[in-house]
Amino acid sequence: MTDSKSPPLFRRAAPPTARAPIPAGQTNTAAVGPNGTLRLNKRMAELGLASRREADDWIAKGWVKVNGVVATMGMQVLPDVRIEIDKQAQGQQAKQVTVLVHKPIGLVSGQAEDGHLPAITLVQPQNRWAQDNARFFFHPSQLKSLVPAGRLDIDSTGLLVLTQDGRVARQLIGEDAVMEKEYLVRVVYNADQGAATSTGQLSRIDDDDPVSTDVQSVFPREKLALLRHGLSLDGQALQPAKVDWQNPEQLRFILTEGKKRQIRRMCELVGLKVVGLKRVRIGKVMLGNLPLGQWRYLAPHEKF
Fold first, then answer.
1. How many CA atoms does the CB half-sphere of 146 hold within 13 Å?
2. Are the C-beta atoms of 98 and 171 separated by less than 8 Å?
């Protein structure tokens, strides 16, 4: 992780990027100190050198120097310091993998729950996509600390990212992340179903005679406008979304936030029922032709 204009093993200061959630067991005490200083692990995360947890591990092992001096845990630094990373840390980081899974319905994203298996159970050699050209060889050690960077509901399918790399997780699910996620959503419409109220609550009635073909022709334009902007969930106004008809029975959603079951709940507020939901893109990475139930590595040249 070096800057091409800097001496080997050094990374010069760069503008801060989005903040990451504080890992479990780590507090934010004194993350920002007097005179504009920052905790070293926070500064390393801002520079994209490592996650905070990873940075602390490297510091503990003596793999980090600040202005030529071995760093100490919890030290405060100015933004313009020169940070040196040992080759051992770089080698460790280079071994970290990110995996793209085409998750089927019935699997959960993270830990097993209610008898349902997690998506990581698919990450086995026999399920690797035959057309995966990434130059990685599978090893069971890659499953250690391989965690989902975001969720996909048990009754949804499509692109799920599992990663060992804290930098990737921070980019996708950091507290200030604004990564676009694209979904194809098959719907049916009940014209008699209650509309969203000013408080964002749905007046529910029975699903009598829902329209399942050519939904586009009967779905009011003002309700499509509400899906794009104007709805609230959990007492909070939703960010603007891009919502358009992909075909007469299917909508395309592009979101930059990810509340629990957000698309299904948005659709309920305007009288739509989701009967199929598939995530096809995260940032610049597409699901593409990855078969259902199979996985591939994120190639080194691919960026979210």
1. 26
2. no
Nearest to 264 by CA among 198, 207, 202, 185: 185
Indicate the residue type of 201.
Q
| The pLDDT of residue 24 | 37
Pick the range with the lowest mean pLDDT from 52-56, 164-168, 232-236, 263-267. 52-56
CA–CA gap between residue 256 and residue 172 (Å, rounded): 10
CA nearest to 3, candidates 84, 91, 89: 84
Lowest mean pLDDT among 175-189, 199-213, 232-246: 199-213
Q: Which domain holds residue 145?
A: 95-170+287-297
Q: What is the CATH number of the domain that holds 68?
A: 3.10.290.10
Closest CA to 168 of 284, 280, 287, 2: 284
Q: Are 304 and 284 contacting, i.e. CB atoms less than 8 angstroms apart?
A: yes
- pTM above 0.90? no
pLDDT tens-digit readout, 243-284: 999 999 999 999 999 899 999 999 999 999 999 999 999 999
Residue count of the chain:
304
Is residue 258 a contact partner of residue 156, using CB atoms and an 8 Å limit? no
The whole-chain average pLDDT of the chain stands at 83
In a domain? residue 235: yes
Which DSSP category does 120 fall into? G
Specify if 74 maps to a domain.
Answer: yes
Known catalytic residues? 153
The span from the CA of 283 to the CA of 172, in Å, is: 9
190 lies in the same domain as 160: no
Torsion of CA 42, 47, 51, 55, to 10 degrees: -70
The CA distance from 68 to 71, in Å, is 9
Q: Residue 143: name the closest of 127, 121, 128 by CA.
A: 121
pLDDT, tens digit (0-9, with 9 covering 90-100), for 92-127: 777 789 999 999 999 999 887 778 899 999 999 999
